Amino acid sequence: MKKLLLLVASLFVMWANSVGATIVVINPPARVEEGNNPGVWDWTYAAVLNPGISMKPGDFFTIYDFPLANLLSQPSFGTTSGTDNASFAVTVQNTGATPPKTSPTDNGGVTNVTVTLLDGDTTTGGDQPISAVAGGLQLGTLIVRSPTKVIAQSLFGSSLDSGTLTPQSQIGPVEVAAIPEPASITLLLAGLAACGALSFRRRNSGS
Question: 124, exposed or middle or buried, with CB in 10 Å at 0-12, 13-18, 19+?
Answer without folding.
Answer: exposed
